[in-house]
What does this fold into?
Amino acid sequence: AQSVTQLDSHVSVSEGTPVLLRCNYSSSYSPSLFWYVQHPNKGLQLLLKYTSAATLVKGINGFEAEFKKSETSFHLTKPSAHMSDAAEYFCVVSDLDYGGSQGNLIFGKGTKLSVKP
Amino acid sequence: DGGITQSPKYLFRKEGQNVTLSCEQNLNHDAMYWYRQDPGQGLRLIYYSQIVNDFQKGDIAEGYSVSREKKESFPLTVTSAQKNPTAFYLCASSISQSSGNTIYFGEGSWLTVV
It folds into this structure.
């Protein structure tokens, strides 16, 4: 079955330190992968997207993610956390070969990022 | 500016009432979606539509209904049959349902049963 697993429900870092939000997936040979950010009481905003081009994807606000097919991972990173990065982050897989009731978008459960001053 | 507009932002419903959440997009997207988000949980798909006058049930369609009479509009009705409707509702759209198409979200609507 298709799935997305965000390995941490909550991550806490200090301002200025690196951020790592982990995502593993199971999917077909060539899925598309996304990271979204959600601030409180807001919609989801696209951070970055992978669609079988370069495996290292750069997004907005200094975030980037690396697609590792051998590890079926798409972890989100940022070298230096800022207070404004505190939010919830969702990993999403889009898989044309998956015809379940979700259409073909599979959402992770989310990781809440806290940033300490 | 192009985008997805949801209204109202906050809505209160009495027991036994039907309420309708509006979603309008001017992105010329074919596909539209409704998700429900409960505190501390991910998104669950209620309904989606790939084209005008056609829609499919998602994982949690019971107690909800939708229509897609126009490309730009995809309203969601929360009926009295939905026993636990208090949640944050997100509307979204994409160019199509095919793999690789980015999905864009509205700002969401809070529904509370009083």
User: Anything to note?
Assistant: The two ends of chain B are 35 Å apart (CA to CA). Chain B has a mean pLDDT of 90.
